[in-house]
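#dry-run=false #mode=assembly
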Amino acid sequence: MVSITINGREIKTDQEDITLLQLARSEGIGIPTLCFHKALLPYGACRLCVVEVTGGQNTKIVNSCAYPVREDGISVQTNTPKLKQIRKNILEFLLARCPEIDMVKKMASGLGVKEKRLPEKSLPEDQTEECILCGLCVRVCGEVIGKEAISFVHRGAEREVAAPFYSQSKDCVGCTACHFVCPTGAIKVKESGNKRFISPWNTEITLVTCEMCGISFAPENSGEYLQAKLGLPAEWLKLCPQCRRKVAAETMGKYDFTSRNVILKK
Amino acid sequence: MMKMTSPAELEKYRSSILEGIDSGRPSVSVCCGTGCSASGALEVVSAFERLLEEKGIQANINTKITGCHGFCEQGPLVLLSPGNRLYCKVTEEDVDDIIEETLLANRVVERLLFVDPVTGEKIEKEEEIPFYKKQLRLIFGDNGKMVPTDIRDYLSLGGYSALAKVLKGMGPQEVIQEIKNSRLRGRGGAGFPTGLKWESCDKAEGDIKYVICNADEGDPGCFQDRSLLEGNPHLVLEGMIIGAYAVGASQGYIYVRNEYPLAVKNFSTALEQAREMGLLGENILGSDFSFNIKVVRGGGAFVCGESSALITSIEGRIGEPRYKFVHAAEKGLWDRPTVLNNVKTWAAVPLIINRGAEWFSEIGTEQSKGTMIFSLTGKVNNTGLVEVPMGISLRELIFEIGGGILEGRKFKAVQTGGPSGGCIPEGLLNLPLDFEKLAEVGSMVGSGGMIVMDETTCMVDVAKYFLSFTQEESCGKCVPCREGGEHMLKILERITRGEGEERDLELLKEISDTMQCASLCALGKLAPNPVLTTLKYFPEEYLAHIKDKKCSAGVCKELIEYLIDPEACTGCGRCLKACPTGAISGEKEAVHILDQEQCIKCGNCMEVCRFDAVSVE
Ligand SMILES: Cc1cc2nc3c(=O)[nH]c(=O)nc-3n(C[C@H](O)[C@H](O)[C@H](O)COP(=O)(O)O)c2cc1C
Ligand code: FES
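#status=ok
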């Protein structure tokens, strides 16, 4: 049993491996995050989830998404002026990077960004940056789907996510999990005929046809892989989501195939 | 080579080597470290070999190819004994004179002696040269005395006696205690107490443990680790073997950057020799202790030197830092307890075991013990690698060992600790060098980089330069380092172009603070140091750029003008010819005119003018 205080409130836990973020959230204490997803391992890239941890004389600023609750008696602050300043700065950075993204704009104003002090990222005209490099897509592909269809390329300011050599990824199973987890809508999926296009990965996937209604829906070559990997029912390969819902509404009520949780809920 | 099956056997072998050495025999050591090789040391070596053979005296004279002596700027260096005479800037053509005069007739070749830039005096012996006089070359000193690829040389200088001592009668706990007592701190930058690190690894549960030597050395201008690995690989190896014994590791790794082929080669040779002699591998010196080492070549990214990135890289993944709330000593390589130390840290271990923790802890300051190797560069007279006791003042280092500022110019600042260290102003020159004192003034010991700057250096430009390096090397994973650093760089670029505003200074401080507090790894946390220290110690330079649009050092192109003084100009036409854009006009022997519109501020005119008629403002 470890006992700590968060914002002055005493909280006990006997859960091993619980992180500060999980503990705080389970107690209804909100901490903003961008690169955290409960189905994925903590990554520590957005730094929004920073908190102040004091043990004895020392206070340090850590990312709560990965900080293990192990030390008895520490006190944690989640919203000091310093932390607010950091979060505000981070959103100013992201806003300068992605000025057109609603979700970033909203979050920025929510965290106190009032004026634009930083110049916007310069991109060729008619292009806007939509990716905040949170890495959710790369990680869902690797950790949940078990593939490495996309990865980070380049360093520093040039960093971006791409399929190998910017061309059709051989590893891509067309599951679109990346699209579902993307918080900014940077990953776009288009379907036409029996083809599915995932930009910006330059990937084109052929789909199988629904046995009931005849529309194309699931990736042709990797249906079985995904079915096994995600423990999906056998109908998954035969029926499109609409028909499947119709047929199996009662028995499979717990699967919400339209929401972004479909893959992650498994 | 024979396999040694006990410490006693090793000692016997050592005695036999020592007996075989004729100490009276003249010897020539040619430094073939990176610096000297680049300036022609290998040609000097072949000249020695050829001429000694021609003269039929090669059997009477020892020729040694050694590692770096540190005084690279004066290279190629040749050290002659008896007498410990040092010849500088030796060329092939000098070799005959050295043999005839010094080796055969015991006379000095005056023209090859070092000339003190301060007094103009010629100095004969290595130890009397001011560059060496104030140094305490504990770790580095043997570099010039041995052939790095010959384990017998290392043995003749007492090599592997620390390992023998440990295996003969020190338990792992005793070794750890000794290192703790010595109060050795990591030389890789952070200065973490080595003994404590070893202790937590020893205490951590796990059947398999690892030790790693960090030889990534990514700081531009630093080559201490490289010189040690090239010049004295067995010292580092012996330290690692002792460390592995202390913490119970069975496997070690050394992560060397790919650009260091000679370091890899010499260290690999050392591994082979040590294995053959039973100093590495199964049942070392006949004991139950077995340990092996693999060499891993790093891809060369600066951030791969960071411990978590380095470990990830050895595991075969992209070398990116991970957050680490559990120390590598508990959960490191493949989640097993791991000790990661810098090359110089490992190299200090045999010395401590041989000479005792007490001896070691008497050197240095209250909190920083032993010596530190700095790579002294920039606008000083003597540049090179210097090993000094912790606590020496910056003034001694720069003005005595370094021989003062080039061309008698005025000192402005010294930047310590590599690209993420701070710039220290003249007022703090008496600062004793140690981990704490440097951190207090906003800089660090870091990798041991030391760049001296004079009045011709613009501090805003310097901050921009270092930040552009760390920005380039940032992995880009976390937002503060990737985006914050880029914005800082843009602001600095604006300021050096004369487009800065006063509120930019506040913004720089604010972003720095966010980077320091919230970055994922130390690269981002430390990157603002050059900016913060120049803002703190040289605010007037920033303000001059912003308000007056002036760069007093004459560096920032957009803010300077080259002017031709009509009084001094003789109309010789040199500047006119040197100007790449044709901005200078004027008849022969009439005053020349510089058209500011066409001037690209390359400075050629000022460089070629013989009459000091061109100035920069
Ligand atoms: C960006 C970055 C680069 C680093 N590069 C090196 C390096 O090249 N060599 C090194 O020994 N330590 C380097 N370090 C420090 C290591 O993370 C680590 O602290 C050190 O290797 C531990 O060894 P020590 O205790 O012997 O100092 C670097 C740290 C950072 C943040
Ligand atoms: S949620 Fe913790 S760093 Fe992004």
